[in-house]
């Protein structure tokens, strides 16, 4: 656990491991923050996940009740152990990889809590989520502790930041997209749409993107904006992606596909009518 | 009760995550929903999953796990009221006896409980597929009496469309979560996946149709059973009738000859009526078929739209 490998100053990583966070974790943390006890200024909890050679992936978390005052801090460790056992039964691959706290700064109490967690896991990471929005944004940072100080004398602990990335599973991505759309409506609600309206929505989005691109092209052509070669290359890729098929072949493919779909629709309607009939006959 | 609104919050993410982690196969993933009942709305605010059934699994383990989880969650002020359960499904095949029984026991205990069905395959195609169902009051009645004979069902006048009622879902976020969303949007570098506009459909259609065919086979077997039953019943009626007639004739003859009439025998013991087949399974199968057909139709309508769009795009060349 030495502060040995220093990478370039622009990057803020010491060990090189990147902390990958799933949005579930952040949402749970925010939720626990909202539900905190009266008088508690922050919430802490355990982070669960998997450790890789190069990265640490945080996939789950649970909050742990704790009491914090000016001079002392008490964490319910029994509870933490219990919860971890329960979680392990569901997903046995998850291990304790650290802990989180809401709030912007790292206090002295954090050091104590971090020590406790170092007993549970080797080299735990500490995640802070600024849910009180002290700096105007919700800052999410991860730290690892490193020893510092002169050997022989009192050794201190320094929290060194790590780089944070967000990863999603595919299905998670789609869920998060849906939730993104809730932040637009004033009442923060959203019904789940289905059917053709979704395709329409998606098509509208593609159309928006196309209009933006077209506007950019217009600007470049009229000289308002200098042409950027890489963008030009992307555009060429885009145009070439539309496959050039002879009109007849395309017609054939299209027709056969449409026929398949229509046939299936017809069959399913037939089946539904059949079972409805059956129902009526039985009840006679 | 009146159709309830459900307001989900972060639960949606948790459900998704659980499925991804647990199984990509056709195993079913289940868990418990926690929340509150507010006015005429059911709010679901949290959930936790059940461990999969492994070899060494005892029944009390599940209940104990549940109790422990709920107790622990109560310590951190999470709503611990058990309001329902969720299940993942494979291509929409969830209407089964097991589901019915579980939902019945839940609804019996807590009136507003719902079962949330999550379809991961459909979600991977581009749109979150979460549906909430409850048993209709009529079906509750029937389940309570366990009277699944045809006469019983006829009395209740229940069809497969009246088994489950769907509850509309609304997703509601708190302000803090909205801030989180902004932050994620800012930082996340993963491009928007446009799975929804994918043109390939044959795979999904094939699987759905396969399942549909299996179900229809089951259905036809069931119908055959019912037909044989009703045929047997009518044959038996005839036999009974004939026997009675013969009896009467004989008695008349004997009377004319002055002999004592033959004793009336107990007919019911001679002609035992055949067992009427339980109709519950048929109802379930019909409901399932209906579900499949709905899904297929939805899917085809979407795909037709996409195909026409592709045509328009190609037409510009």
UniProtKB/TrEMBL annotation, chain A:
SMART domains: JAB_MPN. One of its GO terms (biological process) is formation of cytoplasmic translation initiation complex. GO terms for cellular component: eukaryotic 43S preinitiation complex; eukaryotic 48S preinitiation complex; eukaryotic translation initiation factor 3 complex, eIF3m. InterPro entries: eIF3f, EIF3F/CSN6-like_C, JAMM/MPN+_dom, MPN. PROSITE patterns: MPN. Residues 19-149 form the MPN domain. One of its GO terms (molecular function) is metallopeptidase activity. It comes from the Eukaryota. Keywords: Cytoplasm, Initiation factor, Protein biosynthesis. It is found in: Cytoplasm. The keyword Protein biosynthesis applies. The keyword Zinc does not apply. Component of the eukaryotic translation initiation factor 3 (eIF-3) complex, which is composed of 13 subunits: EIF3A, EIF3B, EIF3C, EIF3D, EIF3E, EIF3F, EIF3G, EIF3H, EIF3I, EIF3J, EIF3K, EIF3L and EIF3M. Belongs to the eIF-3 subunit F family. Component of the eukaryotic translation initiation factor 3 (eIF-3) complex, which is involved in protein synthesis of a specialized repertoire of mRNAs and, together with other initiation factors, stimulates binding of mRNA and methionyl-tRNAi to the 40S ribosome. The eIF-3 complex specifically targets and initiates translation of a subset of mRNAs involved in cell proliferation. Deubiquitinates activated NOTCH1, promoting its nuclear import, thereby acting as a positive regulator of Notch signaling. This is Eukaryotic translation initiation factor 3 subunit F. It comes from Amphiprion ocellaris (Clown anemonefish). The lineage of its organism: Eukaryota, Metazoa, Chordata, Craniata, Vertebrata.
UniProtKB/TrEMBL annotation, chain B:
Component of the eukaryotic translation initiation factor 3 (eIF-3) complex, which is required for several steps in the initiation of protein synthesis. The eIF-3 complex associates with the 40S ribosome and facilitates the recruitment of eIF-1, eIF-1A, eIF-2:GTP:methionyl-tRNAi and eIF-5 to form the 43S pre-initiation complex (43S PIC). The eIF-3 complex stimulates mRNA recruitment to the 43S PIC and scanning of the mRNA for AUG recognition. Component of the eukaryotic translation initiation factor 3 (eIF-3) complex, which is involved in protein synthesis of a specialized repertoire of mRNAs and, together with other initiation factors, stimulates binding of mRNA and methionyl-tRNAi to the 40S ribosome. The eIF-3 complex specifically targets and initiates translation of a subset of mRNAs involved in cell proliferation. Component of the eukaryotic translation initiation factor 3 (eIF-3) complex, which is composed of 13 subunits: EIF3A, EIF3B, EIF3C, EIF3D, EIF3E, EIF3F, EIF3G, EIF3H, EIF3I, EIF3J, EIF3K, EIF3L and EIF3M. InterPro entries: eIF3h (IPR027524), eIF3h_C (IPR045810), JAMM/MPN+_dom (IPR000555), JAMM_MPN+_peptidase_M67A (IPR050242), MPN (IPR037518). The keyword Protein biosynthesis applies. Residues 247-280 are annotated as: Disordered. One of its GO terms (molecular function) is metallopeptidase activity. The lineage of its organism: Eukaryota, Metazoa, Chordata, Craniata, Vertebrata. It holds the Pfam family JAB. Residues 5-139 form the MPN domain. HAMAP family: eIF3h. GO terms for cellular component: eukaryotic 43S preinitiation complex; eukaryotic 48S preinitiation complex; eukaryotic translation initiation factor 3 complex. SMART domains: JAB_MPN. It is found in: Cytoplasm. Gene3D superfamilies: Cytidine Deaminase, domain 2 (3.40.140.10). PANTHER family: EUKARYOTIC TRANSLATION INITIATION FACTOR 3 -RELATED (PTHR10410). This is Eukaryotic translation initiation factor 3 subunit H. Belongs to the eIF-3 subunit H family. Keywords: Cytoplasm, Initiation factor, Protein biosynthesis. One of its GO terms (biological process) is formation of cytoplasmic translation initiation complex.
């Amino acid at each position: 656990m030495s502060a040995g490998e220093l990478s370039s100053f622009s990057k803020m990583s010491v060990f090189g491991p990147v902390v990958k966070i799933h949005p579930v974790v952040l949402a749970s943390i925010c939720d626990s923050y909202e539900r905190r006890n009266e008088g508690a200024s922050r919430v802490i909890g355990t982070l669960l996940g998997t450790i890789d050679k190069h990265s640490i992936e945080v996939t789950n978390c649970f909050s742990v009740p704790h009491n914090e005052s000016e001079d002392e801090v008490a964490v319910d460790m029994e509870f933490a152990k219990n919860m971890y056992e329960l979680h392990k039964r569901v997903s046995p691959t998850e291990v304790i990889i650290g802990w989180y706290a809401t709030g912007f700064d790292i206090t002295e109490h954090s050091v104590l809590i971090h020590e406790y967690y170092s007993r549970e896991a080797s080299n735990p990471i500490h995640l802070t989520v600024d849910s009180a929005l002290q700096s105007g944004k919700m800052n999410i940072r991860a730290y690892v502790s490193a020893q510092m100080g002169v050997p022989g004398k009192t050794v201190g602990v320094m929290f060194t930041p790590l780089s944070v990335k967000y990863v999603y599973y595919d299905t998670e991505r789609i869920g998060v997209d849906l939730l993104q759309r809730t932040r637009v409506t004033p009442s923060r609600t959203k019904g789940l749409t289905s059917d053709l309206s979704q395709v329409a929505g998606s098509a509208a989005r593609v159309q928006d993107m196309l209009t933006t691109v077209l506007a950019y092209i217009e600007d470049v052509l009229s000289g308002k904006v200098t042409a950027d070669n890489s963008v030009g290359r992307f555009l060429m890729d885009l145009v070439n992606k539309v496959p050039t098929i002879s009109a007849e072949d395309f017609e054939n493919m299209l027709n056969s596909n449409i026929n398949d779909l229509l046939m299936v629709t017809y069959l399913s309607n037939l089946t539904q009518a059949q079972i409805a009939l059956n129902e009526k006959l039985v009840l006679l | 009760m009146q159709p309830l609104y459900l307001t989900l919050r972060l639960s949606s993410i948790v459900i998704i995550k659980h499925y991804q982690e647990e199984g990509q196969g056709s195993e079913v993933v289940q868990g418990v929903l926690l929340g509150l009942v507010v006015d005429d709305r059911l709010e679901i605010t949290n959930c936790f999953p059940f461990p999969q059934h492994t070899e060494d699994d005892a029944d009390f383990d599940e209940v104990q796990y549940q109790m422990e989880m709920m107790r622990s969650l109560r310590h951190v002020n999470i709503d611990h009221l058990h309001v329902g359960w969720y299940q993942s499904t494979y291509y929409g095949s969830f209407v089964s006896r097991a589901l019915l029984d579980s939902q019945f026991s839940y609804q019996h205990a807590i009136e507003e409980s719902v079962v949330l069905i999550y379809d991961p395959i459909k979600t991977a195609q581009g749109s979150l597929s979460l549906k909430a169902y409850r048993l209709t009051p009529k079906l509750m009645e029937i389940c309570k009496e366990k009277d699944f004979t045809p006469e019983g069902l006829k009395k209740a006048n229940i069809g497969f469309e009246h088994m489950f009622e769907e509850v509309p879902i609304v997703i509601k976020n708190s302000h803090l979560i909205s801030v989180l969303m902004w932050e994620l949007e800012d930082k996340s570098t993963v491009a928007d996946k446009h799975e929804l506009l994918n043109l390939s459909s044959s795979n999904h259609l094939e699987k759905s149709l396969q399942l549909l065919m299996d179900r229809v086979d089951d259905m036809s077997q069931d119908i055959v059973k019912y037909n044989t039953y009703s045929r047997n019943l009518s044959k038996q009626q005839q036999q009974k009738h004939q026997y009675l007639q013969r009896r009467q004739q004989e008695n008349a003859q004997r009377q004319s000859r002055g002999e004592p009439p033959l004793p009336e025998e107990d007919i019911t013991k001679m002609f035992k009526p055949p067992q009427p087949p339980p109709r519950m399974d048929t109802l379930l199968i019909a409901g399932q078929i209906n579900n499949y057909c709905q899904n297929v139709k939805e899917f085809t309508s979407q795909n037709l739209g996409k195909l026409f769009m592709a045509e328009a795009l190609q037409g510009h060349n």
